[in-house]
Amino acid sequence: MTAPFDAVAAILLIPVGAAALLAALPNYKMSAGLNVAASFLTLLAALSLFITDRPQPGQYLLVDDLNIVFIVLNTFVGFTTSVFSASYIAHELDTGRLTAPNLRFYHAMYQIMMLGMNLAFVSNNIGLMWVAVELATLTTVLMVGIYRTHEALEAAWKYFILGSVGIALALFGTILVYMAAQPVVGEGTNAMVWTVLIEQAARFDPALLNVAFVFLLLGYGTKVGLAPLHAWLPDAHAEGPTPISAVLSGLLLNVALYAVLRFKLLLAASPEAIAPGPLMVAMGLTSLIFAAFMLYRRRDIKRLFAYSSIEHMGIIVFAFGMGGPLANFAGLLHMVMHSLTKSAIFFAVGHIAQVKGTQKIADIRGLTETHPGLGWALVIGVVAIAGLPPLGIFMSEFLVVSSTFARQPLLAIPLVFGLLLAFGALLLRLTGVAFGEPRGSTAPVEASYVPMYSHLALVFGAGIYLPASLVTWFQHVADILG
Amino acid sequence: MNGLTFDIAHLLAGGLVLVSFMMLYQDRLFALINVFALHAVVLALSVAWQAYVQDAHHLYVTAAIALIFKAIVIPVGLHRIIQRIGIHRDIETAVGIGPTMLAGIGLVALSMVLMLRVTPEADPLAREDLAFALSIILLGLLVMVTRRNAVSQVVGFMSLENGLVLAATGAKGMPLVVEISVAFSILIAFIVIGVFLFRIRERFDSVDVGALDDYRGERR
């Protein structure tokens, strides 16, 4: 096949090239611009996957209907975050929290992180996928600790240790999958190629696959932020730079989720292995309810939304665990909506924390009066994330709940309970922050409104009307997910 | 496979589990690091033996990485770091040595029961290796949770990683083993550099709840 332009190579090579350039560029304005440009080019390359011919799945790389959704979402949020990051970072430089060499490092790491995430999505090899997830983890650890404060270092260290243990367990699971595949597929690289594995999975030793899946779910589940393995997540979100909080919540959690889904498919293809669904349902529900309770005691605004991410990842894992066309559709939709909404919220929160000089919820009041642009963005974002109609998350949550009621009414009770709890906590916090008596600095803010409002517009649009072509695409992917 | 090659592989992998147990009762940092160096040497021997038995020459690279990097460079580096930034030489343990050893025995028994039961058809050598590897991984985790000191947590993580390398080399013909061991070495180098740069003397966790609230920015 002689494609004039190899989109897969582009989404991997653009970040590599950009990272090398960014590491060398001393001027932060130029490098912020280059970061945006590179992210935009990667997004274009990802979009071109829809129209160009797909490459044949090789031993290392694969493009199929499932991962295109993830890649496009990843590069889109990566691009908007880079736009937000440019204005955020300029302010950090002014206040002296970051220095120019810090920024050079930050921008280079941003592109390497994008490389790691894109590579994890397109890899057809479970070993390569593991390496890519490790790469993305390492770069985010470095960025979480970039402020060098005591709290930031503590957060980075905790993330590092928990993330490393998670990733070690995932590797053991990967080795076990190889052991299960090796007698059937034969030795060598083929026994790690996902497309080969899924074809032959029915003949693998089911007992070995079961054990492997438990390790993989625990390992990658740590990175998804599933309770009780979530301890790193709130700290990493709260103490790092806000653009990184946005990508952590919006993208990195999805990467780990994608890995779990791939292995879930593998298990589902083996008739004698345990059903992976109930395990995922249990972990999802635990995360949802646990995070919903934790939302009530938060006093730090970034931490609040970090717990909200745990809650939503719980819902998504629950939906995929339920399985079936409708629940999978709902899970996919929820994942996309959550990524868009949560990153928009973090964009708003980042500017708010900068202008108020604090992340404490008690010190942030009456935003709609003092900073209407940011305040209303936050209001829309929180209304969306809490699951109020007519926004997109309402629709996906409604689908999750209704499909659960239809199949397992008893499971729907804790699900709805958790959703309502979280809803109450978020609205409780929102009223003070957005409508209370104004407090703190009222200085005008140079915010970049485009990324957050474009995300919110998409979420709003999806809540009103989903294009038929998108629905058929998602339905098709939901069918693949079984 | 003839009896002797199998017995030697078995001896080396079992030796690795034994050295993991030795880590559990060290209460001095330098002693712990020395035991870790021994762990890495036994791992290097075990991997080299696997390379010889499986006739897989790329595994010699993994063995060399284990020997040079983990048995020499990292322990020497850690000794230097401890002296330079004045970390306490005693290890504060969260759980007493007796219960820790008992828990360790339980974990090894658990991994034997689990792995030997689910792999009845696998190659006997790989099967033993997997069971031993899981024991080493669990013992490494145990070291990490029972120690409060950052350096000993790092040592626990490194011994855990040695277990993973043992599992990966035991799985016959597994691709990317060398790449994965390189990736892990980079990860470990990052951790060690992190300890040094950020001068992490102790773990941050504290029994003092007030201090915890302060660190987490949750105090009113």
Question: How do you describe this structure in short?
Answer:
The complex is a heterodimer of chains A (482) and B (220). Chain A is mainly α.
Q: Could you walk me through the main structural features you see in this protein, from its secondary elements to its overall organization?
A:
The complex is a heterodimer of chains A (482) and B (220). Chain A is built from 19 helices and no strands. Chain A is an all-alpha fold. The model of chain A has no long low-confidence stretch (mean pLDDT 89). The radius of gyration of chain A is 21 Å and the shape is globular. Chain B is an all-alpha fold and 220 residues long. Chain B has one domain. Helix content of chain B is 78%, strand content 0%. In chain B, helix 1 packs antiparallel against helix 6, helix 3 packs antiparallel against helix 6 and helix 5 runs antiparallel to helix 6. The chains are: A mainly alpha (482), B mainly alpha (220).
**Main β sheet profile of chain A:** none
Radius of gyration of chain B: 18 Å
Would you count the extended β strands of chain A for me? 0
Q: Kindly estimate the percentage of residues of chain B that lie in beta strands according to DSSP.
A: under 5%
Secondary structure tally, helices of chain B: 8
First and last CA, distance of chain B: 67 Å
Please give the radius of gyration of chain A in angstroms: 21 Å
Order of helices and strands of chain A: HHHHHHHHHHHHHHHHHHH
The structural domain count of chain B equals 1
What is the general shape of chain B? globular
The quaternary structure here is heterodimer
